[in-house]
Amino acid sequence: MSFDIHTGVQTALLILGLMVVLFVWRGIRSISTARRLPFFRMRRERMLRGWRLLFFSVILIIATFLLNSRAEPLIYSFFPPTATVTLTPTITITPTISLTPTITLSPTITRTPSVTDTPTITPTPYIPLAVEAVFSSTVTPNPDAVFSDLIFTDGLDEEYRPIEQGTEFENPIEHMYAIFSYDGMVKGSQWTALWYRGDELVHYETIPWDGETGGLGFTDWDPDSSEWLPGEYEVQLFVGLIWKQSGRFTVTGIPPTPAPTVIPTNTLTPTRTTTPTRTPRPNATLSPIPSETLTRTPYISPTRTPSKTPWPTSTKTQITPSITPQPTATFLPTRTPRPTWTVPPTP
């Protein structure tokens, strides 16, 4: 039988525990019986013995606690423990009986699925190069800025609160808002909101931040009602080039037909070209010469009577037509030869 220090300490603790229970039980019993004695002296002696037993039990409890926590380290300081060789048992292999299968299972055809679902990778949103090219801020944004989830509505009240929020809206739609709360923004840093219909970028806004460090903000889009085509829309928020928040909503129904746009056509008003009329020049007529008298026919100048045509009225249009200038008619009188004098012969 091996009896080491640890076993001795545990045995002493068990004995002290039993003594504590015995002293407590005897003390309580002595006090309870002392109350029923009629004589004062006997009652007092029995009472003192009971309290004395309870006092000893308290001392034993303290001794038990000290023995449990300090006894072994104190003993080992005087009697250091020696290493005990532990024998390692060897494993004896017992031969096992190999079972010979009597039934050979024929291989079965394993059906392979024709379509394999491959998990899709959700890419991290990014800013297109065309939008990044219009950045104008030089202030470094705060990478720790935070944005709340987006709330979509087609109307705001006077305090910028959503009138009717949701994730599905039916045409006709005119103005859409994406409301969010934010914190940690730096004034003057670049921020961007991208509006997608499916994979198509339909609207964006990118400006230096002009709000407060924290508060309530929104981004909006107000196109023509005919541009709200049915489908799924996504709004992405960025601080600098860092993506912060995204939200989705759905538009259903057929958008209204856009009103026809009247495009004015430029009509050229034809101009009338006046053709001057020329009055034929009268021919000079020679009067017959009498036999005895020489008659000189005076020179008759030609008469020019041009017809007067009114000037056409120009019509003002968006493109001013060119006006063809009225040609000026030039009349050159022809020189009429002077008549010759003929002298009749003298009879």
Description:
By secondary structure, the protein is α+β, with helices and mostly antiparallel strands. Among the domains are: 5-78; 129-252, Immunoglobulin-like, CATH 2.60.40. 21% of the residues lie in helices and 17% in strands. The chain is built from three helices and nine strands; from the N terminus they run αααβββββββββ. The protein has helices spanning 5-34, 40-78, 129-132; strands at residues 146-147, 151-153, 168-170, 176-183, 190-197, 200-208, 215-221, 231-239, 242-252. Strands 3-9-8-5-6 form a five-stranded mixed sheet, with no helix packed on it. Strands 1, 2, 4 and 7 form a four-stranded antiparallel sheet that branches. A hairpin with a 2-residue loop joins strand 8 (231-239) and strand 9 (242-252). Helix 1 packs antiparallel against helix 2 (40-78). The N and C termini lie far apart (209 Å).
Largest sheet properties? 5 strands, mixed
* Residue runs with pLDDT of under 50 for 5 or more positions: 284-295, 299-307
Overall mean pLDDT stands at 76
> What is the second-level CATH architecture of the domain at 129-252?
Sandwich
Q: In order across it, which strands form the biggest sheet?
A: 3-9-8-5-6
Radius of gyration in whole Å, from Cα?
62 Å
CATH topology of the domain at 129-252: Immunoglobulin-like
What structural category arises from helix and sheet content? alpha+beta
What is the ordering of alpha helices and beta strands?
Answer: HHHEEEEEEEEE
Oligomeric grouping of the chains: single chain
> Mind telling me the CATH class of the domain at 129-252?
Mainly Beta
- How far apart the termini lie comes to 209 Å
